[in-house]
Design a protein that fits this description.
About 75% of the residues lie in helices and about 0% in strands. By secondary structure, it is mainly α. The N and C termini lie far apart (about 45 Å).
């Protein structure tokens, strides 16, 4: 007896992010390739994971902490600042590199077929490689300023929740702009502008109370609809707030855990879903457009 013919599948059409799970070996190879390419020919290699955020921190600390006086207004401003920088760098690396991942690998995509989602997702794991050493430095700095004496379970749990907000949000945006970038190369310029604004549109270099006190009331609510804002405040809540000797001098944003965090998680997941849907709809045309 002859076996039934297998169901035909449209060429170039995958199952979206589900294909990444079934191609973990290929994902690992691409992640290794991305790391090797990034540090090929360099002397310091992965040390740049420490050096670049360190220089960035020093510049912002001098500009915002010393010159503008935030160092005197916020206790342990160095921990506050570095917590925000670590998280915004994580977002920037995922989003920026994922948005360029298809055009950067155009030569490979035109030769063979493999799930296109592997390239944007690989940048998430590369970003994690750089994110971990920065987190370790942040933990050491927090412990040195009294983190153990004031931390509780909710503050510890806030840290992975912040990461769970940023990762799908950045990847979803990366999938969207990776698609745009194939058809419209102007998309790279929009990505650069978004990354520039993202640092200032979230409380990385200043306190959220400045938005509440100096702008219109409706801006405050729009401000906290930004998942990056919520994630940064969760990082502050987890790393910086336990180091403050007088917590009553600094207020946790109202409803941060009960309202804004669930909203941010939902927005991040919706962004990921929309990014994956857009990517899947157009991925069949990537090779010919490239």
């Amino acid at each position: 007896m002859s076996s039934p013919a297998p169901e035909l599948v449209t060429p170039g059409k995958g199952r979206g992010l589900r294909d990444v799970v079934h191609n973990r070996y290929l994902l690992r190879l691409i992640v290794d390739k991305e790391i090797q390419i990034r540090y090929r020919g360099t002397v310091l290699g992965l040390v740049w994971s420490y050096l670049k955020p360190g220089v960035q921190f020093a510049v912002f600390y001098i500009a915002m902490g010393v010159f503008l006086g935030l160092n005197r207004g916020l206790t342990n401003f160095a921990v506050y600042l570095f917590a925000g920088i670590v998280l915004i760098n994580f977002f920037s690396e995922i989003f920026g590199n994922a948005s360029r991942s298809i055009t950067d690998n155009g030569g490979l995509l035109k030769k063979i077929y493999l799930p296109r989602q592997l390239f944007p997702v690989s940048n998430l794991f590369v970003a994690l490689v750089h994110f971990v050493p920065q987190i370790l430095i942040l933990i050491v700095a927090s412990v040195a300023t009294g983190w153990f004496t004031g931390v509780d379970v909710k503050q510890i749990l806030a840290i992975p929740v912040a990461i769970a907000i940023i990762a799908p949000f950045a990847l979803g945006l990366g999938l969207m702009f990776a698609t745009f970038n194939v058809f419209f190369r102007d998309a790279e310029n929009f990505v650069d502008m978004i990354l520039m604004v993202a640092t200032w549109a979230s409380p990385v270099l200043y306190a959220w109370t400045m938005v509440r006190d100096q702008l219109w009331s409706w801006v405050y609510y729009v401000y906290f609809l930004n998942p990056i804002t919520v994630a940064v405040e969760l990082f502050h809540y987890g790393f910086w707030y336990p180091t403050v000797n007088n917590p009553e001098l600094w207020h946790v944003p109202p409803h941060l855990l009960t309202v804004w965090t669930p909203i941010a998680l939902v927005i991040s997941l919706i962004t990921l879903f929309l990014g994956d849907a857009m990517f899947r709809r157009h991925e069949g045309n990537f090779a010919q457009e490239l």
